[in-house]
Amino acid sequence: MTESTATLPSLYDRVRTLDAGGSVFGVHFLGATPVFVLGEEQLFFAGETERRLTIHKGAILASVCDGTRIVTGGDDGMVIATTEGGEHEIVASDETKRWIDQVAVAPDGSVAWSAGKTVQVLAKKGEARAFEAPSTVAGLAFAPKGLRLAIAHYNGATLWFPNASAAPQKLQWKGSHLGVTVSPDGRFVITTMQEPMLHGWRVADGQHMRMSGYSTRVRSLSWTSDGEFLATSGSEQLILWPFDGKDGPMGRQPTILAGGVARVTVVACHPRQPVVAIGCADGVVLLVRIDDGALILVRQGDGEPVSALGWDATGQTLAYGTEAGRAGVLRL
Question: CA angle, corner 217, sides to 318 and 41, nearest 5?
């Protein structure tokens, strides 16, 4: 435990610690069961009975979950959906075995994935529809209603309507855009960039937003349950951008909490309360209360960067994983 966290109230003695068996790439919940996505081939189910399921023939490059299934993309060219019972099916496979490095799931169950510049969307009922992005796709995210898909690529982002003939909406800004998210009200599109900053657009009129002040590239984003803040990694503190007004963060400063921690590597907002879980480069996991900045220690620092965080749908259970394969489950 570092000096800065030594005096904090803690819950780490209530954490169930686990050996994930490999570097943890992501963590999701299927019902009440935490599932850790490993960097190579497997999912690790940490229910009452622990089990490992090999689903890909190689590295897992992307994962997303809608609560009933985890959809993964791998360097074997496969898109695979896995359920809580361990059943898994191939959603799609790339004919030329290109890497599937981005995946997304819409509220209606539609699945999107990308290989190179090609994006495809498969509705629950229907054929896959394809879109060619201007350059290699670096991020995918459905808008809240699932009617539009945000695609991050070089020199900006594109909003595509897979089930309509409307022309895609182009959101341009020079540079490498490496990830994308859409605000819960659908009014803003935000991308992470190669530089230590975010860029955003107001969808209605394309108005730009630049969000800087980071010490390194932002790799993790999470919206608060009320949509009023966007929590971000990439600095030695938790940075929360305000989206509670018609202009979002334009002309406003972020809220900064948990100052003085090691670099924040991953963030996950509580699904119901104004609380953010943060994982840090030194292995520390904290709960941060937005209203007053109060901190609770979940994991002591051990030098292993935290690489994944996730809440269950009720907000009663938090799970985390590290690059070294350590994992934990905290039931509140």
Answer: 55
